[in-house]
Design goal:
Low-confidence stretches: 1-32, 34-49
Number of domains: 2
Order of helices and strands: HEEHEEEHHHHH
Strand order of the largest sheet: 2-4-3
Length: 187
């Protein structure tokens, strides 16, 4: 389950990647990108008996490919981002380069993650604990949907529709985001 919680968080980071960072020129955005499920095997690194996960080398492949295309990429191990953010004027180019890199390694052809009802229910419970922590730090957290609604939505579409970090991510303040990730981490 820990693996899935990280995936759901990563999916949220991808969904909110267009937020502009705090105190910086609003013409930049700092996307953080993580594998949609678990990290697709590249065209050069096919799944093996020891490593059947087709997403295993996603971060490595994307960091290498985007760096080759001239982007200054921060490799965070389980995710990556553009160092200093992507200027708004270059977002379309970044998106095109990212799509080209994903196609180059076949990641665009792989199915996204699947989530079981039990995994979705466990994530919901974990996010409620995180929400209490976020509120204790003084941040506004949107009300959580019912557990049943959250689970059904997540099983159908594996990007959480509700997350305790939502409002802070939408503001795009990097210092606040970092504070939440440090003080109210998602296990």
């Amino acid at each position: 389950m820990r693996h899935y919680v990280g995936i759901a968080s990563a999916a949220l980071m991808v969904a909110l990647a267009g937020c502009s960072p705090d105190g910086e020129d609003p013409s930049t955005a700092g996307p953080t990108t993580a594998p949609p499920a678990s990290p697709p095997a590249s065209a050069t690194t096919q799944p093996s008996a020891e490593s059947p996960d087709p997403w295993e080398h996603y971060i490595r492949d994307m960091v290498r490919c985007l760096t080759d295309k001239g982007w200054e990429i921060d490799d965070r191990g389980d995710s990556y981002g553009v160092h200093g953010g992507v200027p708004i004027a270059q977002v379309d180019q970044f998106d095109a380069d990212k799509a080209e890199c994903e196609a180059r390694f076949g990641y665009d052809q792989l199915p996204g993650p699947s989530v079981s009802h039990d995994e979705a229910a466990e994530l919901y419970d974990l996010l409620l604990v995180v929400a209490d922590c976020v509120r204790a730090l003084g941040y506004d957290v949107p009300p959580a949907p019912s557990k049943q609604a959250f689970v059904e939505q997540l099983v159908d579409h594996p990007i959480p529709s509700w997350h305790p970090y939502d409002k802070v991510f939408q503001r795009g303040n990097r210092a606040e985001i970092q504070r939440l990730e440090e003080e109210c981490p998602i296990p």
